[in-house]
Write a structure and sequence with these properties.
The chain is an alpha/beta fold. It has six helices and ten strands. The strands form two sheets. Strands 3, 4, 5, 6, 7, 8, 9 and 10 form an eight-stranded mixed sheet that branches. It has a two-stranded antiparallel sheet with strand order 1-2. Helix 2 links the parallel strand 4 and strand 5. The radius of gyration is 18 Å and the shape is globular.
């Protein structure tokens, strides 16, 4: 069945055809890969947790100007960087600080690159009833040099087999010539993503508050 691939589909225009749908407008496009990238310490994981809770509990949107989904959307957090205790601590702090009535998240600690772990990830998505996977982060979810085009293409080929919405956290590359900040690695990481957001953080020395912006 895998060798046969997807069936042939005849496409015809029509008045009833719907535009692409957002699960969380304007950030997360349904059934497409979305990348959020930024410097280390720019709170990417915290942002991902906040977005996961807005999708899971659309009535609690943290006062942000974001259009929540029309139903409760479950997320599966694929963690390549920390552990369940760290994410549980962050989730507890978010719930306490925002006054959320409830907070839950399906979580899996990952070791193998995404392309080598597809069967198990498919099973966990099914068991969790997840409509979105959060990949934290891109570097360890790939196998090889991120600047190699084949590594990027293999990652997105594996992601395409999962057939679900994905929120991917990535690090920043700085081009010294143009000063442009991009997703670290091959240009194909940006070419294959359907939506890309950059995180900027501002925090004064010694302060325990920070301003965060997404561009």
């Amino acid at each position: 069945r895998m060798r046969r691939g997807e069936p042939l589909v005849e496409l015809r225009p029509g008045d009833g055809i719907k535009p692409p749908e957002y699960l969380l407008e304007p950030l997360i496009l349904k059934n497409n890969p979305v990348i959020i990238f930024g410097d280390p310490g720019s709170a990417k994981s915290t942002i991902a947790l906040i977005l996961s809770q807005i999708m899971a509990y659309p009535n609690d949107n943290y006062g942000l100007d974001i259009t929540p989904p029309s139903h409760n959307v479950k997320c599966l957090y694929l963690d390549y960087e920390t552990d369940d205790d760290t994410l549980r601590w962050l989730l507890t702090k978010l719930k306490r600080g925002t006054g959320l009535s409830q907070a839950t998240l399906s979580y899996r600690r990952c070791v193998l690159p995404l392309a080598q772990d597809l069967d198990q990830i498919h099973r966990h998505i099914h068991d969790a009833g997840a409509e979105v996977i959060i990949i934290d982060s891109l570097g360890l979810a790939c196998a090889g040099d991120l600047k190699d085009a084949q590594v990027a293409l293999a990652f997105f080929s594996a992601l395409r087999q999962i057939k679900t919405t994905s929120l991917i956290l990535a690090h920043t590359a700085k081009n010294p010539e143009t000063k442009k900040r991009t997703v670290f690695g091959s240009v194909f990481f940006e070419a294959q993503a359907r939506s890309i957001w950059e995180v900027w953080k501002r925090q004064d020395p010694g302060e325990d508050e920070m301003d965060i912006a997404l561009f």
